[in-house]
Amino acid sequence: MITLHSFGPAFGLPDPSPFCIKAELLLKLSGLPYQRVTGNLQRAPKRKLPVIVDDGVTVADSSFIRFHLESRHGIDFDKGLSAERRGTLWALEKMLEEQVYWIVVDERWLDDGNFARGPAQFFKAVPAPLRPLICAMIRRKVRRNLDGHGIGRHSQAEKMVLAGRALDAIVGILGERDYLGGETPAGADAALGAFLIAGLCPLFDSRFRELVEARPSLTAYAARIGERFFPAAAVRSAA
């Protein structure tokens, strides 16, 4: 059986990380048996989650988890799709992961209210006298990462312009389909489903969530993914 190492449920979500939600959606789409355990960042090969262990083989990173499932288990997540559609969906997935992700990180980690409601909970195990110092240090690191990526150099208004253009592109690519793959989900549905479920989390004060909610086809899509793959009430309310 495959073991998925992730953070575990938080914020009313299946996982606080969209990448971990994506990995679990890929496993659900694969139909392969799996179990989920709480991962250890310090022991993870790339110091990041998700990680899977499949019959002794350890695979880190959600994209490489997909590649592993395809190559080892013969799964074609994009079965029946044209080469053009496969390329479009891969580009959509990378847009989510390389741009939209950082906008979500910015909202959760750098906004003081959102940080207190969400990421601050990760540091409860730190002794109280040290906790403010550790939180400040980690938030500075996040700010540097955002600045290094480039997204952190934009104003909040500019970030939302980029987010809106990304969401409009997704609306166009999805069209009137139930899923990106048509009547059944494709590989990129794991990424889109994960990011929309995460982005719609009601815990945070989020301009990004407002942009998603302004696009009914995306909220309806997120609800379909949540009801199909994560039928718990908390996920439905988040979607």
Automatic annotation (TrEMBL):
This protein's UniProt keywords: Transferase
Protein name as it appears in the record: Glutathione S-transferase
UniProt cross-references to CDD domains, sorted A to Z: GST_N_Metaxin_like
Species name: Bosea vaviloviae
InterPro entries tied to this protein: FAX/IsoI-like, Glutathione-S-Trfase_C_sf, Glutathione_S-Trfase, Mito_Protein_Transport_Metaxin, Thioredoxin-like_fold, Thioredoxin-like_sf
Cited PANTHER family: FAILED AXON CONNECTIONS-RELATED, METAXIN RELATED
Pfam family, one: GST_N_4
Residue ranges occupied by any Thioredoxin-like fold domain in the UniProt entry: 18-113
Keyword Transferase carried by entry: yes
Gene Ontology MF term list: transferase activity
Ranges in coiled-coil conformation: none
